[in-house]
Every structure is written in structure tokens, then in C-alpha cells.
Amino acid sequence: MSTHPQRFEILLVPEHVEGRDPAHLAEDAVRAAAIRSAVVEATGETGVSGYPRYAGEGVEADIDPETRTVEALLVDGAELDYGLSARVR
Questions:
Q1: CA–CA dist 50, 11 (Å, integer)
Q2: Rounded to whole angstroms, how far apart are CA atoms 28 and 8?
Q3: Whether the model pTM is above 0.70
Q4: What is the pLDDT of residue 33?
Q5: Among 5, 45, 68, 77, which is most exposed with the fewest C-beta within 10 angstroms?
């Protein structure tokens, strides 16, 4: 059994929110800034990046579970548009 989290929520936020430490933003503020969210669950596979793969609601992501960093991301089968960033909650 894996010790990695089995589920994450990914928030897609405008670039201007990038750089703000999520720990210092109220959870409601981060959520309000999101233009899309998706709950992704572990697939049991390792992505091309070498990190565990998570998928759900049209989003596929390789996430480093220790740092909660999105290492690779597809949204509806395409790369993330410029001007957007992904946050993990």
C-alpha cells in the first residue's frame, strides 16, 4: 500500500496569483481566484516525470506528493494555457 495521498484537489488560477504563498492566503481567496478545480485520484501509475500520476474530472497530473508540486499537467488532453498556474490543495 502506498503512503502517498490518494487524492488531491487541483486549482487552476490566473498567473497573477502565482507566487503568493498559499499558506498566507485565506482558503476562500484561493478558491475564489480559481477558474477551474478538479479532484484527482491516484491511478497507481508513475507519470513520465517520475512522480505518481493522478487523474479525474478531465485533469491528469504528475504530482510530487511530498512537496505538493505539479510536475506535469494536462487539462482536457491539452497543456495548461499560458497565464494559468496549478495549485494543489
A1: 22
A2: 17
A3: yes
A4: 84
A5: 77
Among the listed residues 20, 8, 6, 1, the one whose alpha carbon sits nearest the alpha carbon of residue 59: 8
Residue 41 is placed in which grid cell? 485520484
C-alpha cell, 73: 499537467
Q: What is the pLDDT of residues 42-76, one digit of tens each?
A: 999 999 999 999 999 999 999 999 999 999 999 99
Q: 15 is written with which cell numbers?
A: 498567473
CA pseudo-torsion sign 37, 13, 81, 86: negative
Long-range contacts (CB closer than 8 Å, 24 or more residues apart) made by 74-80: 75/12, 75/36, 80/12
